[in-house]
Automatic annotation (TrEMBL):
Record GO terms (molecular function): kinase activity
Protein name: Diacylglycerol kinase family protein
InterPro entries: ATP-NAD_kinase_N, Diacylglycerol_kinase_cat_dom, NAD/diacylglycerol_kinase_sf
SUPFAM superfamilies for the chain: NAD kinase/diacylglycerol kinase-like
Keyword Iron: no
Pfam families: DAGK_cat
Keywords attached to this entry: Kinase, Transferase
Organism: Aquibaculum arenosum
DAGKc domain ranges (all copies): 6-115
Length: 318
């Protein structure tokens, strides 16, 4: 039997109004170890405690930022050594892009009861999904971080717009992302979004090659299978675990090509300026802030930002 531990973040958006129900569900399971965070800075110590108690399934009830902090601690500080626990993600934040792809669905109480039953059953393997995890190094304001979605240029700018204009209306998750994307695409076609999303000049190098500089509307790197609104904006992915996509600024017929970019197949007929590929390592020379799983960071102007994905984690999905 695997022990189940739960880390919950009361500051995550859905936990702000649903924490009493989550707490009651956890209290009803005497075999469950539950730590309610006062601050995400507690996560390394919590994981060391869980490792000492031999917790084999780590449930995380929070948003993308909480999950990102847990993955960083597991893979940078290695409290479990070379064998990290299985992760079970409960989507309790504002966007929950990571949990939408590799997390669990349903009410927290039902999820926790099923997790503890599954831990006793010995039928874990068929519910696992294994994913490479991004490692970013070269930030000016943080040590190396782990996550599953990196975005720069227009991605960072679009997230800020979503938080200011859409989340302020109480709209969350895919609805918020979908409205933001639709508004920006329409605004670009009408000429009203161009000042709001000016892009950024970025030099990019793949797998140790020489960097190439281009003005980008957006850049993303991910190891997720699906992003917001079920999109898969990556193709030509045979080069490695990193899924890279960029659109040059100004984009050619962006509104017309958006369905193909977001929902096309493995190969896509797009004009010059739209590029996507796989890679084992990517180095980016950039000046503006970027996002990792919804958290904003500053690049170090003295060195490139380096992205790799040499480690993997296993996620429970049912």
């Amino acid at each position: 039997m695997l022990k189940v531990g739960l880390v919950s973040n009361p500051r995550s958006q859905q936990n702000k109004r649903g924490m009493p129900r989550l707490q009651a569900a956890a209290d009803a399971l005497p075999d469950l170890l539950h730590h309610r965070l006062d601050d995400v800075a507690e996560i390394p110590q919590v994981l060391r405690d869980f490792a000492r108690h031999e917790v084999g399934i780590l449930a995380v009830a929070g948003g993308d930022g909480t999950v990102q902090a847990v993955m960083t601690s597991l893979l940078e500080e290695r409290p479990y050594g070379a064998r990290p626990p299985l992760l079970a993600l409960l989507p309790r934040g504002m966007t929950n892009m990571t949990a939408a792809d590799v997390g669990l669905r349903g009410r927290p109480g039902g999820i926790l009861r099923r997790l503890t039953a599954l831990a006793r059953s010995g039928e874990i393997e068929r519910h696992l999904r294994h994913r490479p995890i991004l490692r970013l190094e070269g930030m000016a304001d943080a040590p190396p971080q782990r996550g599953m979605f990196f975005g720069a240029a227009g991605i960072h700018q679009a997230i800020e717009i979503c938080r200011r204009r859409v989340h302020a209306l109480g709209i969350e998750a895919d609805w918020a992302a979908g409205l933001t994307i639709a508004g920006l695409l329409l605004g670009w076609a009408l000429g009203t979004s161009r000042d709001a999303v000016p892009g950024e000049t970025i030099a990019t190098a793949f797998d140790g090659a020489s960097p190439n500089e281009r003005h980008e509307l957006l850049v993303l790197v991910t190891t997720l299978d699906r992003l917001v609104v079920g999109s898969r904006p990556f193709w030509n992915q045979d080069g490695g675990p990193l899924r890279y996509t960029a659109i040059a600024h100004p984009p050619r017929r962006l509104l017309w090509h958006a369905p193909c970019v977001l929902y096309g197949g493995r190969t896509r007929r797009l004009p010059e300026g739209y590029r996507s590929r796989g890679a084992r390592s990517i180095e980016l020379e950039l000046r503006e802030p970027f996002t990792l799983d919804g958290q904003f960071y500053q690049p170090d102007p003295s060195r490139p930002l380096r992205i790799t994905a040499d480690d993997s984690l296993s996620f429970l999905r049912f």
